[in-house]
Amino acid sequence: MLTESGGSIEIVTHEHALVIVLSGSFDFSDHNELSTWWEEAARHPTGAVVVDLAAVTFADSTLLNWLITGLGHQQPLQRTFVLAGPFHEAIDRLFTVTGLDHAFTRTPTRQDALSLSARH
Which of 23, 70, 78, 120 is most enclosed, with most CB atoms within 10 A? Predict the structure, then answer.
């Protein structure tokens, strides 16, 4: 699904995880579009959620808030929540500048995230 700013979101199911694949750019204009995806994720019975950010080239605090909300939604469901890279320099900087680089479990690749989720 394409968002207003040109980003796209897709859900892919794997044996141990639900993968939410984001690509392109995400900003405030995507706020309403992003909010519905956690409801969609909750409908999938799985032990983990992986958010693949490898193809995200730009994001502002809207995406960070969405990820924080997602983390909060997964905890009561006792799901592992992992962000997968490799992370674009701008995205990595966004996590570092906001101090959220340690708030999330992050892996260098989607495969690493899936391997981690299979162990939990």
Answer: 70
